[in-house]
Write a structure and sequence with these properties.
Layout lengths: L3 E12 L2 E9 L3 H8 L5 H13 L3 H5 L3 H15 L1
Antiparallel strand pairs: 1-2
């Protein structure tokens, strides 16, 4: 299985003066989950930060995603975890 998956955004976002059209998510490790669990906040906040870490972007960029793109990213994460 691949260690990363590129996810093309249906609804790109503006990011750092440019346009973010694709995210690359790497396979999570146990340490990634442990770090996410230490974050203050509800489960949704922890998931956003977990995904941001795996995609190597700021959590604020994940927060700007369209929900359709976010759902696809959640599905990729779910596939990695199964």
């Amino acid at each position: 299985m691949d260690n990363t998956i590129a996810i093309t955004l249906t609804y790109p976002i503006d990011s750092n003066g440019g346009r973010l059209e694709e995210l690359t998510m790497r396979r999570p490790k146990v340490r990634d989950r442990l770090a996410a669990e230490k974050i203050q906040g509800n489960q949704a906040d922890k998931e956003v930060r977990f995904i941001a870490n795996l995609c190597e972007v700021a959590p604020e960029e994940i927060e700007e995603l369209d929900m359709a793109d976010y759902a696809r990213i959640q599905a990729v994460l779910s596939d990695f975890l199964s």
